[in-house]
């Protein structure tokens, strides 16, 4: 009996990034689940931290401190680790999603767009809110 896990957008995005690196087991000089985890976790954590920064900036009129942002980023990375890599959940995610309704080119493009937005959001925030 296969173990079922709840799917959420984080796992679907991870699946598409992982599937881009894994290619049905043919990979060299790389550990696809760690690479996909790093890309997904860092990008989504950047996106959420940027959202927090915008909210803090709009509410207080100032920039948030590193004392607020570093713990948020760390908690998000731990959350993503627990939901993706802990006890090899990435294998369950892969087997449940491969060939399923979320395994489409549109969702793959959507996943990569979300990843790019996550990385771009930090620079965009710095550009917009740090002008004098």
From TrEMBL:
Q: Which domain of life is it from?
A: Bacteria
Tell me where the transmembrane regions lie.
36-59, 65-85, 106-128
Keyword terms of this UniProt record:
Membrane, Transmembrane, Transmembrane helix
User: What is the name attached to this protein's record?
Assistant: Uncharacterized protein
